[in-house]
Structures are given as structure tokens and as C-alpha cells.
Amino acid sequence: MSQLVSQYQRPVYNAAYRILGNKDDAADTTQTVFLKVFEHIVDYDPKFKFFSWVYRIAINESLNQVKKRRNQEPLADNQESPWQSPAEVLDSKHLCKRVQEALMTLNVDYRSVVVLKHISGCSYQQISEILQLPVKTVKSRLYTARQLLKKTLQNDGSD
């Protein structure tokens, strides 16, 4: 079990964080994912890649958290530090934050494919297996998501 956690913890956490946008929620979701993996390991079908199976559980659990949050609290919680200097605005951390905020404006279906492709480095085929969608649908959603992100970032004035 510890080997599974050490091998998959970082990609599971990263996927959860990119979908949820909150470190604490991502950490909680990561723990839940591994509990579910251990509980349902007997249900794993070896004809599929183990990574895809674990990742699918992570994505599903993250999406469930988004749905729960939607019923409990508003989605936007923009708490910017009052101590930001103009130099920090140009800093790469700010750009990363802005991209994350833009990512959070996307519909969860679009956000999932962007996270899997660009953050986790999955291939179209892997994304197709994880999300249980045709490859063409994955490509279409990714294209649309990129266009929406581009528009959001351009409207904000980010490069």
C-alpha cells in the first residue's frame, strides 16, 4: 500500500488540486481516493492500466467534491493579498495563480481534460480511458477549453 501511495500520490493530488483549486480540499480528496483504491482493489480489471483506474477514481472524487461545494458555498473566493507589489504581479507565481483562476472558471468537463493533458501529461488515449470518452470528444473539449482559457486570459490582460 505504501508503494502505491508513494507512486501515485503526487499525480492524484495535482489532479485534485487543479480541479478543486484548494490545497486542503485536494489533500482530503487524495486521502479519500487512496481509501477507495484500497477498498476496491479487488474490483480492478487488469485489462486496463492501473494508473488510469486510479486516476479515474481521483477525477470522480474531485468532481464529486465540486458538486458538493456547489450546493454548499459560492464558487468564487478571490482573496488576494493586500501586500502585492507591482514586481510580484510580473512574477511567475502571479501568472500561475492567474492561470489557475482562469482554469477554475471553466466548466468541470473542460477543466478535467486540461488538467489531465497539460498538468498531468496524459495522452489523448489515456484521457479517453480515464474519463471514459471517445478520443475525438477529448480533443474537441481540449480545443474548446484552450479557446476559453485564451479568451479569459486576454480579457484579463495577461500574456
Describe the secondary structure blueprint for this structure.
Blueprint: H1 2-20, H2 23-39, H3 50-72, H4 86-90, H5 92-105, H6 108-119, H7 124-131, H8 135-156
Describe it.
This protein is an all-alpha fold. It has two domains: 1-74, RNA polymerase sigma factor, region 2, helix turn helix motif (Rna Polymerase Sigma Factor, Chain: A), CATH 1.10.1740.10; 81-159, Orthogonal Bundle (Arc Repressor Mutant, subunit A). It is 75% helix and 0% strand. The chain is built from eight helices and no strands. The chain has helices at 2-20, 23-39, 50-72, 86-90, 92-105, 108-119, 124-131, 135-156. It is globular and about 50 Å long. The N and C termini lie far apart (43 Å).
Question: What characteristics describe this protein?
Answer:
159 residues; mainly alpha; Rna Polymerase Sigma Factor, Chain: A; Arc Repressor Mutant, subunit A; 8 helices; globular
**Could you name the CATH class of the largest domain?**
Mainly Alpha
Low confidence ranges: none
Query: What gross morphology would you assign?
Result: globular
How many domain modules?
2
* CATH T-level fold name of the largest domain: Arc Repressor Mutant, subunit A
Order of helices and strands: HHHHHHHH
Please tell me the overall pLDDT. 82
Profile the largest sheet. Answer: none
